[in-house]
Amino acid sequence: MVNLIAFDFHGTLCKGTEEAVLESSNLTLKYFKRNERFTFKDILELFGKPWGDYFRRICPDLKNQDVCKMVEQALSYDNIVVPKHIKPMEGSIETLKKIKKNRDIIIVVSTSQQKDLEAHFYPTIGVSNLIDDTLGIMAEQEKVGNFCAGEEKAKALKNYIKGKKFQKMIIIGDMDTDIKAGKIAGFVTIFFNPDGKINSEADYSVKDLREILKILYE
Question: 20 to 30 A Cα–Cα from 96, which one of 60, 121, 172, 201?
Fold first, then answer.
């Protein structure tokens, strides 16, 4: 019986997302002739929330339909911004290849859209042939806000595993919401932080992705 390993993408398998979001967001504000601009600090504070919430925060006068237009415009810059900023996280390619060598299943669960991950992000860091499935959950939440990433990721994971059997189910992510999602869905949880930060709610905390291979196979 195979193992199922679910990875968060941004901040886990890749780095540079904050810089990419900053550039795309400010290009979008310029496109819509807004005077506001995000700082890098703003992006760090909002990171992990739906992109629509970024624009709601800096432009509180926006209507939901305007927010949706801004998100679509921001996404349109992926082909320019992603190759400039997005890089593979240290150890990510090696880790994914070793998991694939063991014929286990690798999925990504992310608040990004599946089509954007597969069209821009995966090819940029060279993992297109290493990911078996993508659970991209960004959609209607951009219109309404108040989106709980942990609960939505858990829902996606539960739907994915329904009717399937795995020896182990593990989720790896760099956000508290990833750990929350894993707990709700019944996964073993691994918190990833390159600086060595520990999440007390997670089953494991690692600062190098290659450490998860010991958890999986030793």
Answer: 201
Q: Counting beta carbons within 10 angstroms of the beta carbon of residue 70, is it exposed (0 to 12), middle (13 to 18) or buried (19 or more)?
A: buried
164 — pLDDT class (breaks 50, 70, 90): very high
Regarding whether 206 and 113 lie in a shared domain, the answer is yes
Same domain, 47 and 125: no
Same domain, 112 and 208: yes
- Per the structure, how many domains does the chain have? 2
- pLDDT by residue (tens digit) across 24-50? 999 999 999 999 999 999 999 998 788
